[in-house]
Amino acid sequence: MQGLAFLIPLVGVVAACFALGVSRASYYRAQKPKLAPNPRPRPARALSDQERARVLAERGKGDAAIRFELERAGVGMAELEAALASLDPEHERAAALVARRGATPATARLLAGRGFDEELVAALVAAEG
Fold it and tell me: Exposure of 14 by Cβ count < 10 A (0-12 exposed, 13-18 middle, 19+ buried)?
């Protein structure tokens, strides 16, 4: 497009595009200002940030996974911390999963994959097994 900017004042748009092998549509499309996409409004029935964090915790996610999901959804840091603070402590949620599934290496892999703290996982599996 820089070559076009140089040639157009000398020979015109049609000749400059033809000489450089650029379609005129591409030239004119590049001249249009880029519009920022409009963000989608939040649906009225959407879960609040705290409700979303609670649902993720009930589905067996650790704090790291919940933090990732909420950050990906565009939740601010203050709201994210408030949502995490409203949940049961991570060690209690992990202990419940270990009690339900047993203290096996498979459970340790599951907990690590779901965003639980690695030291917490190692301590729970070692204490139970």
Answer: exposed
